[in-house]
Specification:
Layout (H helix, E strand, L loop, with lengths): L8 H19 L1 E3 H8 L3 H14 L2 E4 L14 E4 L5 E7 L3 E7 L5 E8 L6 H19 L6 E8 L2 E2 L4 E3 L17 E2 H5 L7 E5 H12 L8 E7 L2 E8 L2 E3 L35 H16 L2 H25 L3 E5 L6 H12 L8 E4 L6 H18 L14
Parallel strand pairs: 4-7, 7-11, 12-15, 15-16
Antiparallel strand pairs: 1-3, 2-3, 4-5, 5-6, 8-9, 9-10, 12-13, 13-14
Helix pairs in contact: 1-3, 2-3, 6-10, 7-8, 8-9
């Protein structure tokens, strides 16, 4: 009879360390005895693990909670140190560049959002990102080596290779200066950081953001619809996982103009200019929305027309995927309080799988919050594995 396989003590130590660190993070503050009970490990094992975590800075000693105190000398308590490292998110939109840094609990440490010309060429956009990242590092006193994960949100398809593709199906370049395609953002910006840079489509990341802190919290199957004027995109979450499809192309409804009204096939409507970089068009849109809320007949008709134009695409998505929820986001979500009920009224006339309709709760922050969540998830996977973090160096510019 074969002897039972031996478990490598080093592997067990790493797994136990990751388990204890996760418990300390989740419980905020607890004593050695409480950690031993929660982990199921011996007091001595936990003591040794805590010594290592204290030395590495992942855990700090704190005052015990009142519930943990007993008569006599109070037991020492331990808490997770969220400033051991940082997560970063970058959003590159048609007319904005945004950068945000959070601690390891997801709390914002600092951010910057800058408007850019919608016709800016790639070089100008990359330069704007570099300047924003550098300013934020300087303002916060954060070193590149302290950022352990970076996620960049981009317009267009992000292929499995990391290449950005903002083309229509017929190959024509569209928007963003006409040259935002056929290149790697990670290669363009990687020299700024000491860690891996991940690039993902903005609508997909917005879905991640809404699942984390927005309208889709606790929902395992939903679709996020990003509608910024005539530019549309979709983020699909199935069984709690982001669905990318073949080569990252899932959700590119911008290509489906032959089937229903999306993108430039939409009828002209002032409300499509909500959030427009053009101040005149934006003010007109905001005025129409304000009047619609006051009951003005023409403005209410603009909401109804937009709902009518959106319904075929949204209904097709609902029938195809049968998600529990459709979240309407992007700049169009500014009209969500009126638009969602209007689309619900259209859905009521059709056979549908009972999909709920919701307006985004994060608004303009959905994309950047989703990018932060993805960065945090990568850091957490590394931290809670118990592995020592390997030293990383920036690639020379």
């Amino acid at each position: 009879m074969d002897a039972p396989a031996r478990i490598d003590p080093a592997i067990m130590r790493k797994l136990n360390t990751g388990t204890c660190l996760r418990i300390v993070r989740d419980r905020q503050s607890l004593t050695l005895a409480e950690l031993a009970k929660a982990s199921g490990l011996s007091r001595r094992t936990v003591e040794l693990i805590l010594e290592g975590l204290l030395a590495s800075g992942y855990v700090v000693e704190t005052e015990p909670s009142t519930e943990s105190r007993s008569v006599g000398r109070p037991a020492r308590a331990y808490s997770f140190n969220p400033r051991t490292a940082y997560a970063m998110a970058i959003e590159i939109g048609e007319d904005i560049v945004a950068v945000s840094i959070s601690d390891l609990m997801g709390a914002s440490v600092g951010s910057e959002r800058k408007s850019i010309d919608g016709d800016s060429k790639r070089a100008e956009r990359i330069s704007a990102v570099r300047a924003s990242v550098t300013r934020l590092f300087d303002r916060l006193g954060v070193e590149p080596s302290e950022v352990w994960a970076v996620t960049i949100a981009s317009m267009g398809v992000v292929r499995d290779s990391g290449m950005v593709d903002l083309r229509r199906k017929n190959g024509d370049l569209v928007i963003a200066g006409g040259d935002w395609s056929g290149f790697s953002l990670a290669d363009e910006l990687g020299d700024l950081f000491d860690c891996e840079v991940l690039v993902e489509n903005d609508a997909k990341l917005a879905a991640v953001g809404e699942a984390w802190q927005g309208a889709a919290q606790g929902v395992d199957n939903f679709v996020f619809v990003l509608s910024n004027g005539v530019r549309s995109g979709v983020g699909i979450v199935i069984d709690g996982e982001l669905y990318r499809g073949h080569d990252g192309q899932a959700g590119e409804v911008f290509w489906a103009e032959s089937f229903f009204k999306v993108g430039r096939a939409l009828r002209p409507n002032a409300l499509l200019q909500l959030g427009s970089p053009d101040p005149v068009e934006r003010r007109i849109a905001e005025t129409v929305l304000s009047r619609a809320r006051e009951g003005d007949a023409d403005a209410v008709r603009a909401v109804a027309d937009l709902a009518l134009d959106f319904t075929p695409a949204l209904h097709a998505i609902a029938c195809l995927l049968a998600p529990e929820m459709l979240v309407i986001g992007g700049t169009t979500s500014q009209a969500g309080d009126l638009l969602v009920p209007a689309i619900e009224a259209e859905f009521a006339r059709l056979v549908s799988p009972g999909t709920q309709l919701r307006a985004s709760e994060l608004g303009d922050d959905a994309v950047i919050r989703g990018a932060l969540r993805l960065s945090l998830s990568r850091i957490e996977a590394e931290l809670f594995s118990g592995e020592e973090r390997p030293a990383r160096r920036r690639v020379p510019a």
